[in-house]
Design a protein that fits this description.
It is a single chain. The chain has 487 residues and is mainly α. Helices cover 44% and strands 10% of the residues. It has 19 helices and 12 strands. It has helices spanning 20-34, 56-67, 93-102, 113-123, 138-146, 194-204, 220-230, 264-269, 274-282, 297-303, 318-331, 334-349, 356-363, 373-381, 400-415, 422-435, 440-452, 461-468, 470-486; strands spanning 7-10, 39-42, 106-109, 152-155, 162-167, 171-176, 184-186, 209-213, 236-240, 243-246, 252-254, 314-316. Helix 17 (440-452) packs parallel to helix 18 (461-468). The model has no long low-confidence stretch (mean pLDDT 94).
């Protein structure tokens, strides 16, 4: 491509959620442009009317905004090469197709749907269009057009030789022209085909780099032949490796819902942070030169290079994403984490007020997905049913016999505690253990079991008692004592 400014475009179809493959394409389009001081453009390709999903446009806008991919031109902000919605550009496609017809590079095809279906049945697997209308006399074409006969416009593909194109990732790829059908440019409804509109839009928007999945490699010769037919400069192609998922038997297949959430919205709903998702997805097919893993979007812009993109398929590893997410959660300030966690706190606690700062301080080091929070804190809302056997712990040297007397001493001391806070509770419990010459755990374990009703909790006895507050904490401790006394 020319040495002018790099221009990339993300051109999704508003047909549903934002799949991680679509998001990766958007991220790479953005990084290709921004790493070279270029422009990133958003274009909506909505000409496949049957597949359009209501609200999908809003999902695209929201996702790009959430992950921080700011575009320089787009449907909602305009730009010098608009409109940026394909259905609003319909006037421009037919003249380009007719130009190719006039130059002898395309033709009107009047074959009926029934004829094409019969041809497909008779030719079997791999059979294509037989070019029946390719050499119709001009008079016959005029007669059929004047009669209002439905038609499509097809490109005249070369019948001999081969077409070679260069891809920045996969290198030179050659396809025999005999394998290429005379592709349709304009459909019977007047709408352009995806391939044709794509080329017209990219050229008129001065796109220099086209980034897409490697599943489109086989279509690249068709794009090239269109560029050549018009005498236009061919953009730089960057085809991305497939994203695969790991199956239960250890094999891999193309990422799908059976592997887990596959949309950006789905991952966020499962408790992953947008910045963690972006960081992880950016590494699915691109290897930084220094092998580091943690990148902000700004750092990705500074470090990204096309030559780091791999040909090999990438495996979407949910456990690795969860590790990334945990790292990002722990990098937050306590206030930031509390803000993220608050909807999950309220989901369980409702209008009940707790010491959110203490709660966040014990959860933040342990949480790897925000959706884990409700189950981790449910015992704060309601003491679960539990068996007295939980008071027995070999490591803490607690038994059914000694837990009751220890719990009674804890209750007696806490009832007279002047300041109900983490420091005061901690000092009292540690002091009690020292005074009675007990292990710290021998005091802490019964208190934590009685306060939570659970063997495993985020935080220990001190934090749980502080969060519960004096009245609720003492109520639970007395219930635990009663459980031990009744056994």
């Amino acid at each position: 491509m020319s040495s002018g400014k790099v221009r990339t475009r993300f051109a999704p179809s508003p047909t549903g959620f934002m799949h991680v493959g679509n998001l990766r394409t958007a991220i790479y389009e953005y990084l290709v442009a921004k790493s070279q001081g270029g422009d990133f453009i958003l274009r909506l390709e909505d000409t496949d009317r049957e597949r359009l999903v209501e609200g999908a446009e809003a999902v695209i806008y929201k996702t790009l905004q959430t992950v921080g991919l700011s575009y320089d031109e787009g449907p909602d902000i305009g730009g010098p090469y608009g409109p940026y919605i394909q259905s609003q550009r319909l006037d421009m496609y037919l003249p380009y197709a007719k130009q190719l017809v006039e130059e002898g590079k395309a033709y009107y095809c009047f074959c009926t749907k029934e004829r094409l279906e019969q041809l497909k049945e008779s030719s079997g697997e791999g059979g294509g269009y037989d070019r029946h209308c390719r050499e119709l006399p001009r008079e016959e074409v005029e007669r059929l057009l004047n009669a209002g006969t439905p038609y499509v416009i097809r490109q005249k593909m070369p019948l001999e030789g081969s077409t070679t194109f260069h891809d920045a990732v996969f290198g030179d790829i050659t396809v025999e022209n005999s394998e290429l059908d005379d592709q349709i440019l304009i459909k019977t409804d007047g709408y352009p085909t995806y391939n044709f509109a794509n080329v017209i839009d990219d050229h008129t928007m001065h796109i220099t780099h086209v980034v897409r999945g490697s599943e489109y490699l086989s279509s690249a010769p068709k794009y090239n032949l269109l560029y050549e037919a018009f005498g236009w400069e061919i953009p730089t192609y960057i085809h991305l490796p497939l994203i695969m998922g790991k199956n239960e038997d250890g094999s891999i297949s193309k990422l799908s819902k059976r592997h887990g959430a596959t949309s950006f919205e789905g991952l966020v709903q499962e408790g992953y942070l947008p910045e963690a998702v972006v960081n992880y997805i950016a590494l699915l097919g691109w290897c930084p030169k220094d092998n580091r893993e943690m990148f902000s979007l700004k750092e990705l812009e500074e470090n990204f290079s096309i030559d780091g993109i791999s040909k090999s398929p990438s495996i979407f590893d949910y456990s690795k994403l969860e590790w990334f997410n945990g790292e990002y959660i722990r990098s937050k300030t306590l206030e930031e984490f509390t803000a993220l966690a608050m909807p999950y706190y309220k989901e369980v606690m409702g209008d009940k007020e707790l010491d959110w700062t203490i709660l966040s301080s014990i959860l933040q080091p342990r949480v790897t997905r925000l959706t884990q929070i409700p189950e981790m804190i449910r015992f704060f809302q309601e003491l679960p049913e539990y068996d007295a056997g939980l008071f027995v712990n070999k490591k803490s040297k607690t038994t059914l016999e000694n837990s009751g007397p220890v719990l009674q001493m804890v209750i007696d001391g806490l009832e007279g505690l002047s300041q109900w806070n983490r420091e005061g509770i901690h000092d009292f419990l540690i002091g009690l253990a020292q005074e009675k010459e007990l292990k710290n755990g021998t005091v802490m374990w019964p208190a934590r079991i009685a306060a939570s009703g659970m063997a495993v909790t985020p935080g220990g006895a001190v934090e749980i008692l502080a969060i519960l507050g004096r009245a609720e904490a003492l109520r639970r401790l007395k219930l635990g004592l009663g459980k031990l006394q009744r056994r």
